[in-house]
Amino acid sequence: MADISRSETISTRQQAIAKLAQQAPQMSFTSLNHHIDMVWLHEAYRRTQKDGAPGIDGQTADAYAEHLEENLQDVLDRAKSGRYRAPAVKRAYIPKGDGSTTRPIGVPTFEDKLLQRAVAMVLEPIYEQDFLDCSYGFRPGRSAHQALQVWRDQLMRIGGGWIIELDVERFFDTLDKAQLRAFVHRRVRDGVVLRLIGKWLHAGVLEEGDVTYPDAGTPQDARTLSDDPESLAQALESNSVFGRVTPPQKRDMVRALRGHGVPVLEGHAVTEAIAATGKHGIIGANDAMDAQSLPKVSMPNRDGFIPFPRYPR
Fold this sequence. Notes:
alpha/beta, disordered C terminus
């Protein structure tokens, strides 16, 4: 019952933040850190994944929970006073795509994940008001299945269309930290929150016993700054209709679309086609199609898709 009451309290606070953000889309929030208290941290702890690999300190979620109240109070005091030091993240590699390549991720300590979750819970209701309604990637209450359903309904409604899939190569590895901080500063000017984000951006990366401090990039899997529902980086990377889709799901989508006569452009052919035409938007074609035939398409508005050009049959 305590967890339910706490969650309702947090939800009420987040709704108040969201309402203000929606009513004042140009406003910068100067006072947010007062929301982060012991109740807020308890909820952040509840939402933090407990079965993940430990960070550089080796501390597990179970070990942290043994003295939960003391640990939460301590991290709260350090975060508010400026004494919190963001630990280096542990570099790990996971298979990417068909397994022929790997993707680097960062493994934070459990306490770092918890505090990042708490900050993300403050930022989420603000940036949720700024995202396009047709954006489904890594957002709370949205899923890849919902995105696919909207995609299918729109395609069926207009009788086909042009599709393009884009992936920003090494986005997280090359992210401009100054640009990200400037982006955040447009909406958030709370000193405590900005200081924490700055510390996470400049935390080192531990790999093979050495700690490095890259000038650019942020580790994937960082709760606030990377691949997560509350991601800030997601807003810079894309506002696409696509959610997280597994390779088998992608293959099924491509097969289904092509079965309905919808051409789909994949891989390097996408980049080559855009480079050849200088056109942008949501477009697509099969690999053999002449790039000059690709139409110019506007980006979707806040309400969803705009009508796509019909594929010439």
